[in-house]
């Protein structure tokens, strides 16, 4: 785990192509034989980094999205993501998105693993939106699949803009826009005041 964590940090800073096994070896005081024993080659190490990063991001997102019951909770979820970006000085972006940008066109196995991670994230967002609908916060006829895709796209785009501009406000604007679009589908119950 120590090697994977260090490799994830290096890849996050330098990218996949800018990180060599020798870089990982130097950062972890590992031998070449250790790296080859555990990972086989660089591609094996990158796959371990993908698993590690996806697990970390998805666990945090699932925990936060599980709390969403109303608009206030949805806003808190957005605030949590913006705060995380601010704590990193708007560096790094989304580990899943960054890895997807680097690998989706050149490594089919990695693309599939990253797509699966995005589908898991979509499912967590969809479940949160489903609870909003069940709680009569979203209209019963709201297209949850489309709203889920739009929300995840706003997150990914906002994180990329925040990363490149070093401005967490870019993510805030993207999330505010997505949440505003969700609010358009507010459940108008004539019996509620």
Number of strands: 0
Q: Radius of gyration, Cα only, in angstroms?
A: 19 Å
Q: Strand-and-helix sequence, N→C? A: HHHHHHHHH
Q: Return the CATH class of the domain at 53-184.
A: Mainly Alpha
Tell me the major beta sheet.
none
Helix content estimate? over 70%
The low-pLDDT segments are none
Shape annotation: elongated
Number of helices in the DSSP assignment:
9
Our estimate of the beta-strand percent is under 5%
Instruction: From the 3D structure, determine the CATH topology of the domain at 53-184.
Output: Tetracycline Repressor, domain 2
The H-level CATH homologous superfamily of the domain at 53-184, spelled out, is Tetracycline Repressor, domain 2
Q: Can you give the mean pLDDT?
A: 93
Helix/strand structural class: mainly alpha
Q: What is the distance, rounded to the nearest whole angstrom, between the alpha carbons of the first and last residues? A: 53 Å
CATH architecture of the domain at 53-184: Orthogonal Bundle
Brief overview:
The chain has 193 residues and is mostly helical. It has 9 helices and no strands. The chain starts with a helix and ends in a 9-residue tail after the last helix.
Describe this entry's structure for a reader.
With 193 residues, the protein is mainly alpha-helical. Helix content is 75%, strand content 0%. The protein has helices at residues 2-14, 21-28, 32-39, 42-66, 71-87, 95-103, 108-134, 144-165, 169-184.
Set down the secondary structure blueprint:
Layout: H1 2-14, H2 21-28, H3 32-39, H4 42-66, H5 71-87, H6 95-103, H7 108-134, H8 144-165, H9 169-184
Helix pairs in contact: 1-2, 1-4, 3-4, 4-7, 5-9, 6-7, 7-8, 8-9
């Amino acid at each position: 785990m120590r090697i994977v964590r260090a490799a994830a940090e290096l890849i996050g800073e330098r990218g996949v192509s800018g990180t060599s096994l020798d870089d990982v070896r130097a950062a972890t005081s590992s031998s070449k034989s250790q790296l080859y024993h555990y990972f086989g080659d660089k591609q094996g190490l990158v796959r371990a980094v993908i698993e590690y990063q996806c697990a970390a991001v998805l666990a945090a997102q699932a925990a936060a999205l599980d709390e969403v019951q109303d608009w206030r909770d949805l806003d808190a979820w957005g605030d949590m993501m913006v705060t995380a970006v601010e704590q990193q000085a708007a560096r790094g972006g989304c580990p899943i998105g960054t890895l997807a940008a680097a690998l989706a066109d050149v490594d089919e196995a990695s693309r599939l693993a990253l797509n699966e991670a995005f589908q898991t994230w979509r499912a967590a967002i969809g479940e949160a939106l489903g609870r909003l609908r069940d709680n009569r916060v979203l209209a019963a006829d709201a297209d949850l699949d489309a709203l889920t895709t739009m929300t995840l796209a706003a997150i990914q785009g906002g994180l990329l803009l925040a990363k490149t501009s070093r401005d967490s406000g870019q993510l805030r604007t993207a999330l505010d826009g997505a949440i505003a679009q969700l609010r358009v589908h507010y459940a108008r119950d004539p019996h509620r005041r």
